[in-house]
Predict the structure of Holliday junction branch migration complex subunit RuvB.
Amino acid sequence: MNWDDDSTDAAAGDEARIVGASAEGDDQAVEAALRPKDLSEFVGQEKVRQQLDLVLKAARQRGATADHVLLSGAPGLGKTTLSMIIAAEMNAPIRITSGPAIQHAGDLAAILSSLQEGEILFLDEIHRMSRPAEEMLYMAMEDFRVDVIVGKGPGATAIPLELPPFTLVGATTRAGLLPPPLRDRFGFTGHMEFYDPAELQRVIHRSAGLLDVEIDPAGAAEIAGRSRGTPRIANRLLRRVRDYAQVRADGVITREIAEAALSVYEVDGRGLDRLDRAVLEALLKLFGGGPVGLSTLAVAVGEERETVEEVAEPFLVREGLLARTPRGRVATPAAWAHLGLVPPQAAGPEGTGSGAGKGQQGLFGA
């Protein structure tokens, strides 16, 4: 339910590949319909929600525009949804753009000069904005003014352009890439955390009601447990399970139906998909658990290095199935257990394991 439209970083491909294909037009319309419209409907992110509620209520009582807001966190956790809620709570229009779309200061000046008083400007993936535009944004956020340069060379002239008060809502999946001068100009900064299974079950039950789908608690729990802590994934898996229940069952989503449907879409009990398992199987079966270089691992699974590093690895590391070390990628004991395999050092007498197994033993202990 609470998710955003982050699509500029490779990590955003994580959700799309989980269901095997991008959402069609109908699915995109459904996603929009499932978005909560105000803070009271927004599930999870309790601290951010409470803090943001105070910021917005105080601004409304003063009759002023809200402070600039920076939202950070992984794709699919609700950054775009919160930006739309901010606009609704402030009863203001919203303008949506993204950092990669602003490559020149003139691009930003054109957007800023057309804003209405009190309007919300949502800037997705703000860390990918060009440096000249970023420097122009400093003055716009602080003084509501920009200097437009006319002409070139010694004859260039800076024309000051006054801007109406507005609220910038920036979203980023990589907050560490934001320069301090930009980060410090936001009056409120909220970090979006991954959801726990109980919160995802609430998301799924609400979405099922909006989709007019009957689902029992066990079915919702099964989908929640495979959703990677991300509401966007939970909603997409719910729609795929709904399709399976409609075509091959009586339309009611139970635990058994959810398990069967997600098996068809190659999503296992921990939320790993085909690529995740391919990376783990190559690491365990071909390289004895590592350490192995990223490029070698990518070749083994037939993917680009960037795909393995930016799409598969973050979730595997977060799940404690893979570790990044100076010597290369190494599987953890949990990875061996998840795939039902026996680590090389445990397969025979001490000292008889493979070289890769010894490498892992040296990193993780006996």
Notes: Residues 4-24, 347-366 have pLDDT under 50 and may be disordered. Strands lie at 69-72, 94-98, 120-124, 145-150, 157-162, 167-172, 188-191, 322-325, 328-331.
